[in-house]
Structure formats: C-alpha cells, structure tokens
Amino acid sequence: MCQAQQYPCYCGCQPCCGGTPMVSPYELSVDSATTKAQALVGGASTVHLSLEYLVDGGASSPSITVTTASNGTTSTWQETAPGTGYQVKRDFMNIPPGTTVTVDASEAAARLRWCETFCC
What we know:
This protein has strands at residues 21-30, 36-40, 47-55, 63-70, 73-79, 86-95, 100-106, 108-119. By secondary structure, the chain is an all-beta fold.
C-alpha cells in the first residue's frame, strides 16, 4: 500500500505514490542493409520480448539472433533456418530492466519489440 495515498503502487519504482504508472513501447529493427542493432531495456519491471521477421526472397542461409546481456550473464535465442514468409515469436523471452538486447539478422528483416513500465 502506498501510505500517503492509501492505494497500491503498481509500477514498483520510487517515488510512485501519487504518480501514474506509464507503459512505453520500444523496438529495434534491422534489415539486410543494417544487420545489427542494440538497445538498453529500462523500466521498473520485467519486459516480455516479441520478435517479427521476414526472410529475404532468394535467401540461401538466413538467420536471426537475439542476444541479451545482464549482470555478466549472456543468453542467446537463434533461428538458423527460418521458414519463408512472415513469422512472429510472441513473449519468447522475459528480461529484467538493465539488460542490453541485440538483434542480428542475415538475409532477413527483423523487428524486436517490448514495453517498459515506468512512473511519472
């Protein structure tokens, strides 16, 4: 309970009492010209990553890799033989604030999306 306002503080950051939790969407996009992008995930709670990708026409060996790094630990998700057509991986990885995410695509376009919750 938020003692000053007598209601729960949902966003988990200080000071939250009397503030409003906000959600902000973020994304990283790469394509065959820009094959790698990186961002810092922030906010006040765990984020749920979603990935969209589309393999280039005539691709011989496409791949999509998502790497996360936090507190000295690295985790990697990779699709080394993605099917043709538009693909979506929803909520495939959950990561804490303070994590660096990198998306890397070869012979494909990819977009990594997430939402961060923070206090105003």
